[in-house]
Amino acid sequence: MKILAIETSCDETAAAVVEDGVKVLSSVIASQIDIHQATGGVVPEVAAREHVLKIRAVIEEAMKGAALGLDAIDGFAVTRGPGLLSSLIIGYSAAVTLARVLDKPLIPVHHVAGHIYSNWLEQDSAPEFPIVVLTVSGGHNELVLLKENMDFELIGETLDDAAGEAYDKVARLLGLAYPGGPAISRAAEKGDASAIKFPRALNESKNFNFSFSGLKTAVLREIEKFHQENGKLTEKFINDCAASFQESVNDSLSEKLLNAAVKFKAKEIHLAGGVSANKRLRSMVIEKMKVRNLQLKLRYNSNLQYCTDNAAMIGGAAYFLYQKNPQGYSSRAEVFPEPQLNLYSKNV
Length: 348
Ligand code: KG4
Ligand code: ZN
What we know:
CATH topology of the largest domain: Nucleotidyltransferase, domain 5
Radius of gyration: 20 Å
Strand order of the largest sheet: 3-2-1-4-5
Distance between the termini: 21 Å
Number of strands: 10
CATH architecture of the largest domain: 2-Layer Sandwich
CATH class of the largest domain: Alpha Beta
CATH superfamily of the largest domain: ATPase, nucleotide binding domain
Helix content: 40-55%
Shape: globular
Strand content: 15-25%
Bound molecules: 5'-O-[(R)-(carboxyoxy)(hydroxy)phosphoryl]adenosine, zinc ion
């Protein structure tokens, strides 16, 4: 089954053609990063206008990349939510139009389900259940148990900021570029991760929730202290602070992931979402698995394109949704974009 998928929930205009949920025939992402760098974050109106300008060319490029005509497409997938309403609407309108004109099923997909299914794309072997997924980006930060396809159970979530949001805010405090994750990670490579002792919130082994707002405040205090004592931030301080912050975030994320994997007797653990692109997070999970002698299959997508927002993950998840209930999807579905869509209510 070949699915054309569209993702416009935030600031990437993306389209992809995915076969049987796993094989990416094409994946096109038009990033708006340059535009949002000027404001240090996404302005919804600006993002929506960019989607309008780019969506058609992005879809055409994805079809060209897959070397297929629209008549070869068996279904159209689109991100239903969560996300910015004005951005979601653009991708949604395109997908609804294509599904209706070509009379093929429209498959609306939860954005986080897409991130979770990014670890099915282009793999040598199919993942085995049960799986504990750490899905973490700018907008969400969750531990999810999958007992079977498309059966999501929330184990833990952030009580305040998502880790990606904390990366973006701390990068801003340190005068680094947007988005903060890659910028912090680059600075951290030159810094000393033990230079500053930052807190690890909700550290008890049975607590699977996260909290990063205290860490953010701790970083702000260190920066203020440095300003008072030394004036302008030095490169060494920025690098050390970035490395120490990154170490604290990754320590919380990896510790809770592994505790959950043990508790829920997972066969596999997956890292998904924009923050899963973080190299230190990956290496820290591997180190801790060795120390604890955990024989688990760890998956993250080595293609960084599938960690951050993309449409291939939406096409992948759509296939598994459709397989579960082929009768549930038609070209005339009356479903609409939902900025606050909940993955854990059973009707998603
Ligand atoms: O999944 P994504 O593209 O969009 C959302 O669904 O939010 O994730 C974007 C987030 C941003 O906060 C960005 O700073 C973070 O992922 N990110 C990273 C890295 N690359 C992107 N965080 C840490 N390390 C990275 N290498
Ligand atoms: Zn995302």
